[in-house]
Design brief:
Its EC number is 2.1.1.-. One of its GO terms (cellular component) is cytosol. With 246 residues, the chain is an alpha/beta fold. It folds into 2 domains: 68 residues, 2-Layer Sandwich (60s Ribosomal Protein L30, Chain: A); 165 residues, SPOUT methyltransferase, trefoil knot domain (Alpha/beta knot, 3-Layer(aba) Sandwich), CATH 3.40.1280. It contains 9 helices and 10 strands. α1 packs parallel to α2 and α5 packs parallel to α9. It is elongated.
């Protein structure tokens, strides 16, 4: 299932995940656009009471809209890399080392899609996958951002390096600040999971590591906040290099 106004609307627009049927609270103006999009694609629309939607989405955060969809397929790592390297593109990729909170993954996908990332990689084990909660938290970005799963992040890093992509890890203990890194060329960014950060073996495989300066009493930022900060620094550098303002 996928739920929430933004997530369902973007799924219908993107057409990546076929929606089998749409369940809505009513037919008033609030649900009019989504119902119209569904009918244009010959998706059955059914009006259901709130209790029925609450049973499908126990958290109750469905905003009156639930879509029954086919599971989103993971992208092939080869396809993500090839897409990032087409002529006119400068690779900007994200690797997530053990992110387990679906809200964090969804927020990262949303920021990645907005900042020009061509693909996100997650490990096959000890990490959240593309669940309905992730789709909701991404506000529809999951339909546009390719996500690949790999058995070993360190081997993926070696492969990216062989392809001429610099790999940077974000690590609170690194001596260099993230603003000192050069994001203007082909880059992959590695962010660690909640609590543990980037694992030592993965960090050691990277070309360099950097930290986000912290001036307060809290020792770290949420991984989705860290990703947003660094990805928009990358976007700033790239746009400045192209003679554009952020």
């Amino acid at each position: 299932m996928i739920y929430g106004l933004h997530a369902v609307r973007e799924a219908l627009r993107a057409g990546v995940r076929p929606i089998q049927r749409l369940l809505v609270l009513g037919t008033d103006r609030q649900f009019g656009e989504i119902s119209r999009l569904a009918r244009e694609q010959r998706v059955p629309v059914r009006v259901e009471p709130r209790a029925a939607l609450d049973r499908l989405v126990p958290s109750g955060h469905h905003q009156g809209v639930v879509g029954v969809v086919a599971a989103k397929a993971y992208a092939e790592p080869d396809d993500i890399l090839a897409s990032a390297q087409v002529e006119g593109q400068t690779p900007l990729l994200v690797l997530l080392d053990g992110v387990e909170d679906p809200h964090n993954l969804g927020a990262i996908l949303r920021t990645a899609e907005a900042s020009g990332v061509q693909g996100v990689f997650i490990p096959e084990r000890r990490a959240v996958g593309l669940t309905s909660v992730v789709a909701k938290a991404s506000a529809g970005a999951v339909d546009y951002m390719p996500v690949g799963r790999v058995p070993n992040l360190s081997r993926l890093i070696e492969r990216l390096q062989d392809a001429g992509i610099w790999v940077y890890a974000l690590d609170a203990e690194a001596p260099k600040a993230y603003t000192e890194l050069d994001f203007s060329g082909p880059v992959a960014l590695v962010f660690g999971g909640e609590g543990t950060g980037v694992r030592p073996g993965v960090r050691d495989a990277c070309d360099e590591a950097a930290h986000i300066p912290m001036l307060g009493k809290v020792s770290s930022l949420n991984v989705s906040a860290s990703a947003a900060i660094v990805l928009y620094e990358a976007l700033r550098q790239r746009r400045e290099g192209a003679g554009k303002k952020l």
